Amino acid sequence: MVNLTIDGKKISVHEKSTILDACKKLNINIPTLCHHPELKVDGNCNICCVKVEGKDDFVQSCSTLVEENMIVKTNTDEINNKRKSILKDILSNHPNDCLTCEKASGDCELQNLCYIMDVNRDEVPFDGKIRMDLIDDSGDSIVRDMNKCILCGRCISVCRDIQGIGIYEFNNERDLVNTVDNKPLKETECINCGQCIKVCPVGALYEKTQIQEALKALLDNDKHVVVQMAPAVKNTLGEEFGLKPGTDVTGKVVASLRKLGANKVFNTDFSADVTIMEEGTEFINRLKEGKNLPLLTSCSPGWIKFVEHNYPQLLNNVSSCKSPQQMFGALSKSYYAKKSGIDPKDIVSISIMPCTAKKFEANRPEMQINGIKDVDIVLTTRELAKMIKLKNIPFLDIEDEDFDKFLGKGTGAARIFATSGGVMEAALRTVSYVLTNGEMNDIDYKVVRGLEGIKEAEVEINGTNVKVAVVNGALNAKKLLDKVVKGEANYHFIEVMGCPGGCLAGGGAPIPDNIEIKELRKEGLYNSDKNNEIRRSFENPEVKELYDKYLGEPGGHLAHKLLHTHYLD
Ligand code: HC1
Ligand code: SF4
C-alpha cells in the first residue's frame, strides 16, 4: 500500500492506483473528459490536472501513479483556472447548437463540465462554421459529426481495445479523428456495434435516427403498423425514466406503443422462440451428420459483419437462420398478413432494438422476400424513449397492457437471448429435450451464464459430450475463432454476440452502462425468465400454432423460404 495526502487528507491506496483513483476513494471530485473507467488511459484532455508538491508542472491525475508520501492539491485557484482554460479551448472549437444536439441535455459531459466550472458561452464565442465535410452519415447505423468532436480519443480506444476492430485514429497533427484511410464509415470494416456512440462524451457520434419516419408511418391511416420489441428493451427502457436497471417494463412499453399509434404490438421474444426451433433443428442435424461444426449463432448482425470480413472460411459454419428481428419481420408480412387479410405491401414493420447494427441488418439485400423488406424501420431503445417523451406519454403512470395475439407470446428462454449465454441456454433447453425424447428436462444451464468474455462448457446429452462456447464482444470472438481456425479448439456449438455482455449492452441501449448496470440488467432478465410460466421455446403455444397451421415442420420448405438466408458478401 502507498500512503499519500490529498487536499490535507491522508489515505492509503494500492500501489497501482492513480491519483484519480485515490481522489475517488476520498470522494474528491475531479473533472474528466477523456477518462472512462472501462477504457485504456490515454491522457488526451488534461482536464483532470492536479498539482503535486515538488513538481512545477501540472500532472494528469488519470495517468499518474501514486507515490509514497506524495502531497497532492486538487482544488486551488491555479488548478481551477488551468482547467477552465482547457475547457474554454475546447469550447472555442465546439459548435453552438446545444438546443438541437443529438446528445440529450444532461447527458453531454462537456455541457455538464461548463455548468459545474462556470464557463459561459459569451466568454468563448464559436465563430467557426459547421463543415459539412466533417459529417459522415454514409452508413446505415452510425453518424459521425466531427464538428462536435473534442478529441478525447474514447471512440479510438473502445473500437481498438475492446472490440478489436480499430476503425478510428488521430491524424498526424492530432487535431482530428479520422477513419483508417479516411474512408466513409460505410466503406470501412465497422460492424455497426455502436459501442463508440456509448462512450462519446458529446454528440459527435449517434445513431442514424428513424424517429420521423416512424412517426409518419404511425400517423398514416393507409398503413398497418406492426411493432416488435426486443428482449433487452423490456428490462432496460425503464432506465430512461429513472427506474432501476433490469426493471421489467414490458406492459408499459406495450401501452406506450399503442398510444403512439401502433396497430399491433408484437414481441421479438416470439420469434426468438421460433429461432430456437429452427437453429435447434439445424444443430441436431449437423450434430448427427458431423457436418459444418461448430455451429455458430447468427442473431447478432455486428458479429455477422465481423465474420464476413475476418473469417470468410467460417461462413458455412454460421447458422442459416435469420435473426429473430428478421424472422419476425418476414412472418409479419406472410403469416400475420394472411391471418389478418392485409396486403403485405400495406404493412409497415417497425422494430425496437437495443442495437444499432439492427438498422444495418434490416437494410441488407438478403433481408427481403420478393422485393418486400422484412423490417422497414429500426428504432433503438433510446429513440423509443425519446418518442415517448416527445408525445408526452406518462410512461411511469401508464397502465400495463399485453401484447397482441399470434406473434405476442414469448418464453423465458427467449427473454434471456439478451444476455451473453442466453441463446445457448435457450437452445440447450430445447435440444436436450428433443434429443432425449423428453427424458432430459433441465431448465437452468448456469454454466453458460455470466458476463465474462469467453465461457466454455460441456453438456452430456444422450451419451454425447456436447462442447459449447459462448463469446461476447468482437475482440473475444477473434481470440476464440483464431483457436478454432488453427484447430486448437473443438466445439460443437458457439454463441457469439458482437457487443461486450450481449444485447443488454448493445449500441442502442440506454447510456451509461457500466459493469454494475450490466449486472443489474442481467439479473432482471433472469428474473423475467424465472417468472415466466413457460420457459422452453417448443412449449410456446403461439409457436406451436405457427408450425401447425402455417409453416409445417421446423427446417421445412416454407420455414427455409421465410426464416433462413445465406450471406451474399
Ligand atoms: Fe438482441 Fe436478438 S437477443 S440480437 O441482442 O437474437 O438487438 O434484445 O432482439 O434479433 O430476440 C438485439 C436483444 C434481439 C434478435 C432476439
Ligand atoms: Fe468501431 Fe463499433 Fe464504432 Fe464501428 S460502431 S466504429 S466497429 S466501435
Automatic annotation (TrEMBL):
Domain (2Fe-2S ferredoxin-type): residue spans on this chain: 1-78
Domain of life: Bacteria
InterPro entries in the cross-refs: 2Fe-2S_ferredoxin-like_sf, 2Fe-2S_ferredoxin-type, 4Fe4S_Fe-S-bd, 4Fe4S_Fe_S_CS, Cytosolic_Fe-S_CAF, Fe_hydrogenase, Fe_hydrogenase_lsu_C, Fe_hydrogenase_ssu
Keyword Transit peptide found: no
Record domain 4Fe-4S His(Cys)3-ligated-type: where: 78-118
Protein name: NAD(P)-dependent iron-only hydrogenase catalytic subunit
Sequence ranges assigned to domain 4Fe-4S ferredoxin-type in this UniProt record: 140-170, 182-210
Keyword Iron assigned: yes
A molecular function GO annotation: iron ion binding
Keyword field: 4Fe-4S, Iron, Iron-sulfur, Metal-binding, Repeat
